[in-house]
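Known limitations

Structure tokens in this collection are predictions and should be treated as such. Users comparing against experimental data should check residue numbering before alignment. To illustrate the layout, the record for Methyltransferase is reproduced below. The input appears on top and the generated tokens appear beneath it.
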Amino acid sequence: MADSGRQALLLSTSDPKQRHRFVSLVELGEHRQPFDPCPPDSVDHMPCEDPKRNSQLSRYMNFYRERHCPLPDEMPLCLIPPPLGYKIPVQWPESLHKVWHSNMPHNKIATRKGHQGWMKEEGPYFIFPGGGTMFPDGALPYIDKLRRFMPIKGGIIRTALDMGCGVASFGGSLLAEGILTLSFAPRDSHKAQIQFALERGIPAFVLMFGTRRLPFPAFAFDFIHCSRCLIPFAAYNATYFIEVDRLLRPGGFLVISGPPVQWPKKEREWEELQAVARALCYELIIVEGNTVIWKKPDRDPCLNPNEFRIGLCDESDDPNVAWYVNLKRCVTPSFINGGYAIGKIPGWPERLLRAPSRALIMNNGIDLFQADTRRWATRVAYYKNTLKVKLGTPAIRNVMDMNAFFGGFAAALETDPLWVMNVVPARKPLTLDIIYDRGLIGVYHDWCEPFSTYPRTYDLIHVASIDSLTKLQGSRNSSCSLVDLMAEIDRMLRPEGTAVIQDSPEVIKKVARIAHVLRWVTTINNKEPESHGRGKILVATKTFWHL
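Generated tokens:
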């Protein structure tokens, strides 16, 4: 292929057939020239959260701010460049308090929110004092206020969801309490809030509470928090509150600070919010100032007569199915007599290694769980000691497991100074509920689409059986290309970041060819001796290059 046409091919989306031919050449190793950089204005590009593309869509229930992905044939095959002056990120735990300004030169939040303690520019850094709109003096005094009414310490609360999180100082502060918080916010007028959170080393991703279920299983979170998130919980016949109820573990805590809680000129919305909570039999713990704390019943749902026409979901509705599923106005029963409730499940850290009740639903679930836990403890030790992957060192903070199953990889890393985004592919068995029962966090995702994160947000990305992520369940036919999938890994990976990929020798050979055009430096290794498998492990480093 002539060099003169290569740039046009990689960046063009006008000829799908030509693109398919090019992808095949890359996979076969017949095209070995590295991909070109994408244009300089693409440094923060998220294909499914593209404001220019999505601005033409409906505003109803913020539909236009949800995920809307281009077709695979519309995706340019080029490498997202780092911004001018990019540096290897500040390491954890120092990164919790400061990051390089040049890595995300977006001053808008510092200018708008600096007086509320969100962040400020100081020399070559952005500094994070730990504040937020409802806690400008810092998250710690706010958490001290909550602990008067909630068991913040002691391992009773482990998994939390922070909705509309800003730069995630609340979730970052809860880490010291042993609470693992997944923080989310949309790509909105604040633009880079989730990018800042991830640069700080705090678990976060881009998400809009709009028309669809959030990509989590039922009863995932012990604690759900909204601090001036401005979600209209009682609107649309309480649809948003009902979705929060689906996600909240029985006996879990819901905290809302800010409007409409005892807020001037929001009296009607506040009355409606209280009415929804009463309808779902939530126990009111406290209203103090502009903060309300409720406790969800620890038994199967009770429903009081209500004006919102809320009913129980039909048994045919699987509450764990949440990938591109529209929001529903019905309450999810737990079906196991409160067996998921806080106080009835083990506390943290005991719950990490104990097979949860939801594993019993699977055929041979307990045996599978225990075998998976042992397997990953052995493999992670092999990664560290033999393959010299820098897990457990300050070089690796943000980790993703693209094919997490029961979260065994993350469980084996629990004592390391990192966190893992466990991704359960939406086409595979929906085991994400078991991951949350263990006290870990993650999301559903279909890897034939880009992930909802900014470029350069993960230090290490791990995937076992990468080829299966491109296949329809139970089929050998691919629904997307390995080239596109690996280009997405490259987009998410930080310069000098690591990819660890396991698969058959044939697939790993193909992966190595694609890695070459992504400018990765690779080694191919045998699996750990205990596995007795013929598989291979590719360990790759993303090179640090500039435009």
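For this record: Residues 1-10 have pLDDT under 50 and may be disordered. DSSP finds 14 helices and 19 strands in the chain. Please report discrepancies through the issue tracker.
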